[in-house]
């Protein structure tokens, strides 16, 4: 049985999943490197260890944060391989079956929604002269990021393939869409605020103008989203326009 110390070693090694990324087999060496402490504990026979390592130097590619669930599940399955309840081919089949969907969900949530959202919030803090803006970005992005790694690894090892049902219950695709729309709203509001920025406090008239601009921008952006334009593209366009407007106004 894999002990806590070994899982902690695996957890640290997961951060190097893409350090040896290659065009032929992509994340295979990083995956194998992360698995190595657990495999050494499971297999005391050198021949069995070599066979296990060969299984994990084959092609592998997924979102690096979501890989934790696959790694945890595979460690559990390798214990079953050792006990004779599962074959090595079943381990390879699992990796092939889930890495694509995990990659798509991770890309959409972390890079398509969470990163732009955290960027907008931190830029808003910076626009109001808050020195903690970079810290806000790091916290908003890395708390979910690290939590996903921990959740995936430890739940994957404890419950095996059921971890993917637990991830499904988090409704990450729905959360991605909501974060993207919220990011558009914040970006529109930020652009309106920066366009109306003045050294003196805003008058009631200026406040109304700011609100109207924000509403118009949001309406335009919402219409573009309905037309199929990527929310991420809209957010970055608004960020560029906001920075430009604050520079020249």
Write structural notes for this entry.
Helix 2 (28-42) packs parallel to helix 4. Helix content is 77%, strand content 0%. The chain has 2 domains: 1-111 and 144-170, no CATH class; 171-248. By secondary structure, it is an all-alpha fold.
Question: In total, how many beta strands?
Answer: 0
Averaged pLDDT? 82
Shape: elongated
For the sheet with most strands, the description reads: none
Compute the number of structural domains. Answer: 2
- Low-pLDDT residue intervals, each spanning 5 or more residues: 198-203
Radius of gyration: 23 Å
- What's the end-to-end separation, in Å? 64 Å
Assembly state: single chain
Order of helices and strands: HHHHHHHHHH
Essential attributes:
249 residues, mainly alpha, elongated, 2 domains
Brief digest:
The protein has 249 residues and is an all-alpha fold. 77% of the residues lie in helices and 0% in strands. The protein has helices at 4-14, 28-42, 46-55, 67-83, 88-127, 133-159, 163-169, 172-195, 204-226, 231-248.
Write the layout of secondary structure elements.
Blueprint: H1 4-14, H2 28-42, H3 46-55, H4 67-83, H5 88-127, H6 133-159, H7 163-169, H8 172-195, H9 204-226, H10 231-248
């Amino acid at each position: 049985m894999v002990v806590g110390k070994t899982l902690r070693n695996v957890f640290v090694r997961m951060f190097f999943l893409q350090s040896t990324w290659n065009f032929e087999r992509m994340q295979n060496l990083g995956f194998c490197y992360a698995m190595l402490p657990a495999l050494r504990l499971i297999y005391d026979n050198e021949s069995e260890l070599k066979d296990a390592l060969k299984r994990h130097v084959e092609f592998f590619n997924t979102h690096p944060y979501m890989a934790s669930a696959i790694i945890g599940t595979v460690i559990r399955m390798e214990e079953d391989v050792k006990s004779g309840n599962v074959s090595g081919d079943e381990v390879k089949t699992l990796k092939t079956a889930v890495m694509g969907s995990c990659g798509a969900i991770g890309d959409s949530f972390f890079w398509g929604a969470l990163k732009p959202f955290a960027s907008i919030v931190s830029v808003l803090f910076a626009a109001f002269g808050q020195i903690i803006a970079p810290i806000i970005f790091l916290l908003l992005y890395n708390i979910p990021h690290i939590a996903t790694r921990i959740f995936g690894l430890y739940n994957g090892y404890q419950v095996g393939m059921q971890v993917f049902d637990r991830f499904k219950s988090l409704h990450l695709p729905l959360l991605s869409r909501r974060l993207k729309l919220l990011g558009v709203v914040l970006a529109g509001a930020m652009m309106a605020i920066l366009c109306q920025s003045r050294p003196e406090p805003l008058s009631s008239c200026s406040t109304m103008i700011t609100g109207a601009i924000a509403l118009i921008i949001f309406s335009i952006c919402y219409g573009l989203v309905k037309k199929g334009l990527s929310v991420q593209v809209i957010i970055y366009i608004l960020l560029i326009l906001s920075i430009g407007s604050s520079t020249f106004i």
